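Hi V.,

Quick status before I head out on leave. The structure for the redesign project is tokenized and pasted below; the design run finished overnight.
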């Protein structure tokens, strides 16, 4: 009991349990009131926040390796999706019907033998061609194909080729996506190998290949994709990048049964080209162990690559007990046969950058050019002064920093193939050094041919 001096009366003191109970009641009452007022306030803002409930789910976790059922479900759903996309494409009959409608609605006069169509007839064809064709009959596409026709028309053939190209791209995208095991929009090396292996029987130009050579052919074809489209060596390529480059066009060009001999020789994916590259590898492999040593590789091409450059190849590239396999050899060949390409220059630049600084300085250039000078002495030639060559290289490249040459400088100069040839190959240096004599000789040959 306690005494209240204000009221002058005794007040019983609450027991500990009673005090705790009353505090809990107060907290419950507080929470009840807070909930009530909050719900009233939230209800008043209902019109503002209704869109929050419509936000779609945008992240779906990929199933783990042990979640077999989820993985199967994902694969099946992707297959159904790709089938649906495939059905949305124009088939041969629909393409023939489109061509018939375009030809029927052509707008005179013709330009030579080329049929034209104006925008009004273009829209009429779009209405009759069906839903699948609707996406192609837009003002944007018409304007894209409109050139200098005085009547404001476009070529029927150009438009039809545009549609064919789009259909082909979508078909190819779907075909490649079927091999995308991860379902992430890229192909791994094994995925692309499977795609090309199953493509071989559909390419008439590869009919003569023996099945025992298929694995080597597939390796040869796949390396070109990965060498140029996977510069960071991640082991995967975006399907979008495969479609954007010309390599797939070159590969599918082998469907043409009447492909000329010249086209076959310049096409990396042709049978003669693949056999040439593999034949060179076998010829270099003198001990027939399936691998190339530095000494064996030194006979590559004209046999004039410097020892210092070959040392760098075996230091930086993947080897097995100091010897390179066919896959590593393919990267080497692709780099040296395409020295104008950024990916090839990147490969060679890494070998030239002996200090791993990201640029070439006078020391780096001198280090490699000394080997060229030594080879000149061996062949009984008077060595050229390094200072002269160094000045010429910097004049050709015109780097941002006058004392350093970066990879980007080399690419931007469009002289990367010449610079690298000067530093790694005696034959390349000799060709550069005698370029004026060679040009005069070529001109004389042309003049002689004209006289005859």
């Amino acid at each position: 009991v306690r005494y209240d001096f204000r009221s002058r009366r005794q007040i019983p003191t609450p027991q500990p349990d009673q005090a705790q109970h009353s505090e809990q009641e107060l907290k419950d009452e507080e929470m009840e009131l807070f909930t009530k007022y909050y719900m009233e306030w939230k209800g008043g803002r209902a019109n503002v926040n209704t869109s929050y409930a419509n936000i779609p789910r945008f992240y779906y976790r990929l199933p783990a390796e042990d979640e077999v059922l989820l993985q199967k479900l994902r694969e099946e759903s992707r297959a159904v999706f790709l089938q649906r996309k495939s059905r949305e494409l124009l088939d041969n009959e629909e393409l023939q019907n489109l061509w018939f409608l375009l030809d029927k609605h052509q707008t005179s006069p013709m330009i030579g033998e080329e049929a034209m169509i104006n925008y009004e007839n273009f829209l009429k064809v779009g209405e009759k061609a069906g839903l699948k064709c609707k996406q192609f009959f837009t003002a944007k596409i018409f304007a894209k194909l409109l050139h200098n026709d005085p009547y404001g028309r476009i070529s029927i053939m150009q438009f039809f080729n545009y549609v064919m190209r789009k259909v082909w791209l979508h078909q190819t995208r779907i075909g490649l996506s079927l091999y995308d095991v991860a379902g992430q929009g890229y192909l791994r090396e094994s995925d692309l190998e499977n795609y090309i292996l199953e493509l071989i029987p559909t390419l008439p130009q590869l009919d003569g290949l023996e099945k025992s050579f298929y694995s080597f052919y597939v390796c040869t074809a796949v390396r070109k994709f990965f060498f140029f489209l996977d510069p960071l060596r991640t082991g995967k390529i975006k399907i979008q990048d495969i479609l954007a480059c010309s390599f797939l066009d070159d590969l599918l060009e082998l469907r043409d049964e009447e492909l000329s001999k010249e086209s076959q020789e310049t096409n990396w994916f042709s049978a003669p080209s693949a056999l040439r590259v593999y034949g060179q590898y076998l010829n270099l492999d003198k001990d027939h162990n399936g691998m190339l040593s530095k000494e064996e590789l030194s006979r590559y091409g004209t046999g004039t690559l410097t020892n210092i450059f070959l040392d760098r190849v075996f230091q930086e590239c993947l080897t097995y007990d100091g010897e390179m396999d066919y896959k590593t050899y393919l990267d080497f060949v692709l780099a040296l046969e395409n020295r104008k390409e950024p990916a090839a220059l990147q490969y060679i630049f890494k070998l030239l950058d002996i200090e791993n600084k990201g640029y070439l300085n006078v020391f780096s250039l001198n280090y490699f050019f000394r080997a060229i000078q030594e080879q000149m002495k061996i062949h009984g030639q008077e060595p050229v002064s390094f200072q002269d060559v160094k000045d010429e290289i910097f004049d050709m490249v015109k780097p941002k920093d006058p004392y350093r040459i970066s990879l980007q400088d080399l690419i931007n100069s469009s002289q990367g193939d010449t610079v690298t040839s000067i530093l790694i190959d005696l034959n390349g240096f000799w060709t550069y050094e005698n370029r004026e004599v060679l040009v005069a000789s070529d001109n004389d040959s042309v003049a002689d041919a004209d006289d005859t």
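Above is the designed sequence. The mean pLDDT is 88.

G. will cover questions while I'm gone.

Best,
W.
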